[in-house]
Specification:
single chain; 495 residues; mainly alpha; two-stranded antiparallel ribbon; two-stranded antiparallel sheet; binds glutamine; cell membrane; dipeptide transmembrane transporter activity
Length: 495
């Protein structure tokens, strides 16, 4: 424990620092996310008639593909982010550098222009990658060991911080961006990240000493070999894209499709490498086989869940009534609904697991995952109803989206926190510090599938694709349930 004296809800003071930093980082992330697709389609044929112009006038299909690839990159880069903390800068410094890069990214987005947009987005993804997994690792550092009884509670408080930021973001960044000016909105996201950085630097003395050390520093030879490899790939990519651009064949798909494919290949090969690693004991290998079930399920889950900022956001903008009690509100506000449900339902779920544990028994991780998959599937089956109702141009009641988000959040609470903890518990010792990065790769894989579907011409807002995704999720839930004994067996002593 890093701090003596004052505590934060009975937790080390450092938790307050990490809570506030991650709250502001998520504020900037979800604020920008709420605007992203609307900004991309603004001024084009897919925008709502009469909506604010000044965007990049893309089609909804292109915007959804870009959005999905962007999210995929944010979570993919969490892995190298963890590596940098482990081997180069240590977690604290990596978070500061990441925060600066995120802020710079939002500031870049604040400047109009297509090139600025892509550079800004890349910077935000890079910065988030450096920040996201490491800040969670630092939460873990505040406690003495896995045995500290406050650890799970600490992570719950931290998850609330994430959602306070996620809740406020659409209301502030979304409103400014959607109702005043897109770029002013992005600038306000930069201000949020700036406040988070300030908080982090001021509170830095409360963090665990472990957070400032580099656990396994890179040797000079290793560094040179990485630099050589990196440079080689950079040259290969530069030559390849030089030719594509030079011959005039470049279109956005030349960037989107290779990145999305990488986003599928990398997660699969990382899991395969861990599974085949000869250094693992056979008990560890079995656990990895069990983990693959959870990983695949999570990929399908986030595939659907992350369309909140594209498919659901588009539906909120164009097909949902935007007045309550005669008061008009910007459609980005719907993006606050999921974090709101998280804050409302997280205590209910915590109480429910406890009550179940006392009376019958707490459902296992496997059962929770099965429930989550069925829930996310049901959410889309429900969503198809207002989708159909609005096909003649009627605006549906906001209650529909509130309900869809409620069902999704119930799924999220069965999968997301549980997933984080089962990831750390099933991790082979050798990969302990990298495993959270592996968990986030499930998001990458899910989002890349969506992106590829969109570039291939599938209509992500069409009833066909929506019900196919919903069916897949329910089937995945069913498969987990039917194989629950097998999966639990693979998990060994982990529950
Ligand atoms: N809403 C959570 C967060 O932003 C979980 C997102 C995720 O893991 N895909 O951290």
């Amino acid at each position: 424990p890093a701090s003596g004296g004052k505590t934060f809800f009975g937790h080390p003071r450092g938790l307050a620092t990490l809570f506030m930093t991650e709250m502001w980082e998520r504020f900037s992330f979800y604020g920008m996310r709420a605007l992203l697709v609307l900004y991309l389609i603004s001024g084009g044929t897919d925008a709502k008639p009469g909506a604010q112009g000044g965007g990049l006038a893309m089609t909804m299909a292109t915007a959804s593909a870009i959005y999905a690839v962007y999210l995929a990159m944010v979570y993919l880069l969490a892995m190298p982010g963890g590596w940098f903390a482990d081997r180069v800068w240590g977690p604290r410094k990596t978070v500061i550098i990441g925060g600066c890069v995120v802020m710079l990214g939002h500031l870049t987005l604040a400047v109009p222009g297509t090139a600025m947009f892509f550079v800004g987005m890349a910077l935000v993804a890079l910065g988030s990658g450096l920040l996201k997994a490491n800040i969670s690792t630092m939460v873990g550092h505040l406690y003495d060991g896995p045995q500290d009884p406050r650890r799970d509670g600490g992570f719950t408080i931290f998850y609330i911080g994430i959602n306070v930021g996620g809740f406020a973001a659409p209301l502030v960044v979304g409103t400014i961006g959607q109702s005043v000016n897109w770029h002013l909105g992005f600038a306000s996201a930069a201000v949020g990240m700036g406040l988070g950085l300030l908080q982090f630097i001021i509170g830095t003395r409360h963090l665990a000493p472990l957070s400032s050390t580099v656990p396994t520093p890179l040797s000079i030879e290793e560094r040179n070999s990485w630099l050589r490899k990196g440079l080689l790939w950079l040259v290969v990519a530069a030559v390849f894209y030089g030719i594509v651009v030079g011959t005039g064949t470049f279109t956005l798909n030349w960037a989107l499709i290779p990145i999305a494919l990488l986003g599928l290949i990398i997660p699969v090969s990382v899991l395969a490498r861990i599974k085949r690693d000869k250094d693992l004991t056979s008990a560890e290998q079995t656990k990895v086989s069990g983990y693959i079930w959870f990983f695949v399920a999570a990929a399908v889950f986030w595939m659907i869940f992350d369309q909140a900022g594209s498919t659901l956001s588009g539906f909120a903008e164009k097909n949902t009534a935007d007045t309550v009690f005669g008061m008009h509100f910007p459609s980005t506000w719907f993006q606050s609904v999921n974090p709101l449900w998280v804050m409302a339902l997280a205590p209910v779920f915590a109480w429910m697991w406890l009550a179940l544990a006392k009376r019958l028994k707490e459902p296992s991780t496997t059962i929770k995952f099965a429930i989550a998959m069925v829930m996310i599937g049901i959410s889309y089956f429900v969503f198809i109803v207002p989708m159909g109702m609005s096909s003649d141009g009627t605006k549906v009641s906001p209650m529909w989206l509130l309900m869809v988000y409620m069902i999704q959040t119930m799924g999220e609470l069965c999968l997301s926190p549980v997933g984080l903890s089962v990831t750390t518990k099933l991790a082979p010792e050798k990969y302990a510090s990298q495993m959270l990065g592996v968990w986030f790769l499930a998001v990458t894989a899910g989002d890349c599938i969506v992106s590829l579907l969109s570039t291939a011409g599938a209509d992500l807002s069409g009833v066909g694709v929506l019900s196919a995704e919903a069916t897949l999720a329910v089937l995945a839930g069913l498969a987990i349930w039917l194989n629950r004994k097998k999966i639990t067996g693979l998990m060994g002593d982990v529950r």
